[in-house]
Amino acid sequence: MRMVFRWYGEGNDTVTLPQIKQIPGVEGIVWALHHLPAGEEWPMEDILAYKKLADPYGFHLEVVESVNVHEDIKLGLPTRDRYIENYKRTIEKLAKVGAKVICYNFMPVFDWIRTDLFKELEDGSTALFYEKAMVDAMDPMDLVRKINENPDFTMPGWEPARLLHLSSVFESYKNVTEDDLWNNLQYFLEQIIPVAEANDIKMAIHPDDPPWSIFGLPRIMTGPDSIRKLLKLVDNPYNGVTLCSGSLGVNPNHNVAEMVREFADRIPFAHIRNVRLYENGDFIETSHRASDGSVDICDIVKAYHEKGFTGYARPDHGRHIWDEKCRAGYGLYDRALGIMYLWGIWDSLERTKRGTRV
Ligand code: DNO
Ligand code: MN
């Protein structure tokens, strides 16, 4: 397991590289050019600027999250070819700074959705929270109306750029079925994977978060069946998954450790975090400790260990603790605690296996 830590870049993250350097066992940053809209080719200069920042700390740039997929690719529009070309050029450039994994997702319009970014837990910390009834009750056209009436209207986690043309985007998805989305993903992967392979970069799709349809939009990366289907779509080791225990773990029928055991050789990147589920479908992100949430983090790490996992892992999100002011879910303290928990489990498994000091 190779531990990495997501960093949003200078001036864009409250956490600093010297701080990350002091978290035990972190060897690289998970990064992206966040200022660029989806679909654009990443300029080499901007990529090299990241390298310049990371080098003095000995951090590698092997894991990129995310190179976002342009909406026209997901929709299967004729204009997609232009954006796919840009994606290929970006892959080639990323290879020049040593990238080995690209995380991306194929969720229409929205990335992850929560209804409250700072919901208080019993201990006074706050965390990302999802209220199912609230999202279920939202009519997409109502959302469009609200945004049109008030340009400042937003929901936690929404990027303003994505909201700009919301009504036309919703309109374009009206007749797009899950099958269409699968076909469009296949078209994308058939073109991208050979380039990824030639550049020794593994593509790792992130599951939908939450892993079900929202606002009537189709969503296809929702569980083990989707992963099985994805891996067959283009059956190549460079077509893999970012196995996110928190995204997949909010469906009570999912056993994430079993997914690790089944898909291990196609998981170049692990997101490990816990969530607590409620009977009504709500969920909140908790500390990594297994007993704090509903996801068996111990068994998940055990599964990775059994499989001799040599891929990258990151703690994904954390709570906001000790009065930290930070990007929602991306503070220093709780993610650092999460890493120590993950190493604690890993090291003790190693010791048991070897019967000696780690
Ligand atoms: C949720 C997070 C996401 C993720 C992107 C990947 O679990 O990991 O923000 O980074 O959806 O594209
Ligand atoms: Mn994740």
TrEMBL record:
The gene is uxuA. Keywords: Iron, Lyase, Manganese. This is Mannonate dehydratase. It is an enzyme of class 4 (lyase). Its EC number is 4.2.1.8. Pathway: Carbohydrate metabolism; pentose and glucuronate interconversion. GO terms for molecular function: mannonate dehydratase activity. Catalyzes the dehydration of D-mannonate. It catalyses: D-mannonate = 2-dehydro-3-deoxy-D-gluconate + H2O. Its cofactor is Fe(2+); Mn(2+). The keyword Lyase applies. Belongs to the mannonate dehydratase family. It comes from the Bacteria. Gene3D superfamilies: Divalent-metal-dependent TIM barrel enzymes.
